[in-house]
Design brief:
Elements (H helix, E strand, L loop, with lengths): L1 E6 L3 E8 L2 E9 L8 H15 L7 E6 L5 H14 L4 E6 H10 L4 E6 L3 E6 L4 E4 L4 H4 L5 H13 L5 H11 L3 H9 L4 H7 L11 H19 L8 E4 L1 H5 L1 H10 L6 E3 L3 H15 L1
Parallel strand pairs: 1-4, 4-5, 6-9, 9-10
Antiparallel strand pairs: 1-2, 2-3, 6-7, 7-8
Helix pairs in contact: 1-2, 3-12, 5-8, 9-11
């Protein structure tokens, strides 16, 4: 059996497959090396993953994660996984490559991520051959849930958002202005906190304030990321933000001359299908 992971800053989706298809699936915390404590990550995997899966039955692990673009980050993840799966061959790569495989398989395309964070890259059917630098939600991540959430929170705190939207946020979240500031500046994982505030915007997705805020950020994502890539290449997106606001993603893509993008909320299922076919072909 093989174990496949699609890991973002907020969560990790795990799929266990063999040549016949999906055997099991489960979810753990996000394992971005820049935001995750090694002991916490190891404990989370130990309690959830290994309870669902005998370690000696896993021959290969394919881990695609955010923050896994450096040798140090790859080593961080490998050490955590090797402790739980000592007999497995482990491959760690970026979530961007995982998104590209899920979207295009062995075909060329522009792979984009719009979830808690944002990223993009040109995929040649095997590897990411060109990409924009990912600067995170403080310096970049245009179009991501964290950046949209940051703008939303700023509008709420300054009383610039529509009154009905602000009332809904305060009632449903139970947060005060002090709570918001504390979560952003004093608690761990402010990017996750900001990204999760998107859910309070969803009941108002047809509101002009929400539509313009999201459209402005998606447009900024295209300007900063996509305009450097060829226009005659298929474009695709993974991530909850892209899926929840697919109508806006489609309209902005059309504005910049791209065909209607392929959009996946969760790439793990398509990754599992890709590797199932790979196993079947080799057997």
């Amino acid at each position: 059996m093989i174990l496949i992971a699609d890991s973002g800053s907020s969560k990790t989706d795990w799929m266990v497959i063999n040549g016949e298809g999906l055997v099991n699936s489960f979810q753990t915390i996000g394992l971005n090396p820049y935001f995750t404590d090694k002991a916490v990550a190891a404990d989370n995997i130990s309690q959830i993953v290994t309870e669902s899966l005998p370690a000696d039955k896993v021959s290969h692990i394919y881990f695609y994660g955010s923050g896994c673009g450096s040798d140090e980050s790859v080593l961080f993840i490998k050490q955590i996984l090797k402790a739980q799966f000592p007999f497995s061959e482990i491959l760690v790569n970026t979530d961007l490559l995982g998104a590209a495989i899920a979207l295009f398989g062995n075909n060329k395309g522009i792979a984009c991520i719009l979830g808690t964070g944002a990223n993009s890259g040109l995929y040649d059917g095997n590897n990411i051959v060109s990409k924009q630098i990912s600067l995170g939600y403080v310096l970049g991540d245009e179009g991501s849930a964290a950046v949209i959430g940051k703008r939303f929170m700023r509008s709420v705190l300054r009383s610039e958002a529509p009154e009905d939207i602000m009332n809904h946020f305060y009632k449903e979240s139970g947060l005060s202005n002090t709570d918001i500031i504390t979560n952003i500046y004093r608690e761990k994982f402010p990017n996750r906190f900001l990204a999760h505030t998107i859910k309070y915007m969803l009941p108002f997705r047809d509101n002009d304030f929400v539509k313009e805020l999201v459209k402005d950020e998606i447009d900024a994502f295209f300007k900063e990321n996509i305009t450097n890539y060829p226009i005659d290449v298929q474009i695709g997106f993974v991530g909850s933000l892209a899926w929840l606001f697919s109508d806006i993603v489609n309209s902005v893509a059309l504005k910049y001359g791209y065909k209607t993008p392929k959009i996946l909320r969760y790439p793990a299922t398509e990754l599992a299908e890709f590797y199932k076919e790979l196993i079947s072909t080799k057997s």
